[in-house]
Amino acid sequence: MLDSTHLHITSWVIALILFFVALALHNSGQAKGNKIVHMVLRLFYVVVIFTGGYLFFEYSDINAALYGVKFLLGVLVIAFMEMILVRLKKGKSTKVMWILFVISLLCTLYLGFRLPIGFNFFM
Ligand code: HEM
Predict the structure, then answer these.
(1) TM spans, by residue (predicted)?
(2) Domain of 16?
(3) How big is the CA angle at 19 (ends 31 and 69), to the nearest 5 degrees?
(4) Residue 46 C-alpha to ligand 1 middle, in angstroms?
(5) How far, in Å, from the CA of 25 to the mean position of ligand 1?
(6) CA nearest neighbour of 56 among 117, 122, 121
């Protein structure tokens, strides 16, 4: 089951949805709801890293450099989601984090769909 990319895709799609739900709750002043969704999102970070890490250890022999970059980019997407939510709670500016989040997400999606396992939209 972990050999295919389905579980990995499911986990990062759910993580992205939870991220935007947490943002919406923050913007509507629902601190408690935001806290709960943020906690669930953190669990999904672990699932994304676990499913991605499994694919990495299983297939990185195909192209160690590109799979290494995919690993790093995936972790960066998670890091920027977390930094946006934490900085929002602290009332700090999130502009730079948003730019970095969008760039790293686009690069991750492009590279993920380009790499040979699963869907190959860009080949
Ligand atoms: C939110 C963060 C992430 C996003 C949006 C993301 C996105 C993707 C996408 C679009 C694919 C291609 C799926 C397919 O072709 O069927 C993929 C595959 C993969 N991801 Fe992620 N990923 C994320 C996090 C991670 C992390 C943290 C790791 C490593 C720990 C990782 C490692 C991999 C590997 C090794 C593959 C297989 C590449 C291939 O298609 O050959 N990803 N990911």
Answers:
(1) 6-25, 37-57, 69-86, 98-117
(2) 6-114
(3) 145
(4) 13
(5) 27
(6) 117
Whether the CB of 76 sits within 6 Å of ligand 1: no
Residue 120 placed within a domain: no
State the closest ligand 1 atom to the C-alpha of 109, by its place in the atom list counted from 1: 10
Any domain includes 75: yes
Q: What is the pLDDT of residues 42-67, one digit of tens each?
A: 999 999 999 999 999 999 999 999 99
- SS3 per residue for the chain: CCCCCHHHHHHHHHHHHHHHHHHHHHHCCCHHHHHHHHHHHHHHHHHHHHHHHHHHHHHCCCCHHHHHHHHHHHHHHHHHHHHHHHHHHCCCCCHHHHHHHHHHHHHHHHHHHHCCCCCCCCC
H helices of 1-30, in order, are 6-27
Is 27 a member of any domain?
yes
Q: With pLDDT > 70 as the criterion, what percentage of the chain qualifies? A: 99
Domain count, the chain: 1
